[in-house]
Amino acid sequence: MDDDAGLQAEAQNRLPPAFEPRKRRKGIYILPNLFTLAALFGGFFAIVMAMNGQFRTAALGVFAAMVLDSLDGRVARLTHTQSAFGEQMDSLSDMVSFGVAPALIAYEWSLKGLGRWGWIAAFIYCACAALRLARFNVNAGVIDKRWFQGLPSPAAAALVVGLVWLVSGSLEDGGWATFATFPQIRWITFGFTLYAGLTMVTNAPFYSFKDIRMKRSVPFAAIVLIVLLIAMINIDPPTALFGLFVVYGISGYAVYAWRRAKGQHVSVISVSTNEPDERGLHR
């Protein structure tokens, strides 16, 4: 009996390759990663345009990357194609489009005239973008989804390139010509670049809009406000978008100050743990 069992086991081990179970090869989901690659191209395109002195087009490339970046995650969730690869790819794309590209655009457009102060400001912005993305990846499991910890990198990029788009676009259209030629515009760009960079690494809570459900009914007045907002953006896109992101860039500090004044919890860390690496996060 033992010999028969041994012969059967040996026969099973000698099955031809066609009868052996195939191992499932790991792959990547193409649809959401196509949006991520398109966003990456937007950032790369913006860098190339800035190197060629076409700053208005470069700013539009960054804003296009923002739109595409907002879609890849939603597409992945709708099609159930989330993956660790997609998350890492998204972070790398964000670093190029919202970290390197805005810093280079601001430097080539205006900060270059400040000498070492200009490239220091550009580097601080770029470094803070990397730190903000790394912190976001590490704290993804403990962050309250309704809030961002610090200014999100797309909004920070919009503050920097939005100023470039506003002033350079007005100069090309014949408006703001004298303002655009002021030497002070370099220091204004310097201030916006530093503010956007440092705000990314603060603990100020910025609303994420992730709890808004499109299927939920809203008051009629909300639809009217959306229509008015779209009309305002269409009248003067650079001014309207830049103004919106300036207000958003200040909102985090306003929420932080309001919570402090009310004695409320100001941290966006929603899950408390006893891990040593997370000490100091829950403040």
Blueprint of the fold:
Elements: H1 2-13, H2 30-51, H3 55-78, H4 84-109, H5 116-138, E1 147-149, H6 153-172, H7 177-180, H8 184-200, E2 205-207, H9 220-235, H10 237-262
Antiparallel strand pairs: 1-2
CATH class categorisation: Mainly Alpha
Strand order of the largest sheet: 1-2
Global shape: globular
CATH architecture: Up-down Bundle
Helix and strand pattern? HHHHHEHHHEHH
Poorly predicted segments = 175-180, 271-283
- Count of distinct strands: 2
Head-to-tail CA distance between termini: 70 Å
Could you say how many structural domains there are in total?
A: 1
Oligomer: single chain
Tally the helices: what do you get?
Answer: 10
Class of secondary structure makeup: mainly alpha
**Biggest sheet features:** 2 strands, antiparallel
The CATH superfamily appears as CDP-alcohol phosphotransferase transmembrane (TM) domain
The radius of gyration over CA amounts to 25 Å
In round numbers, the mean pLDDT is: 81
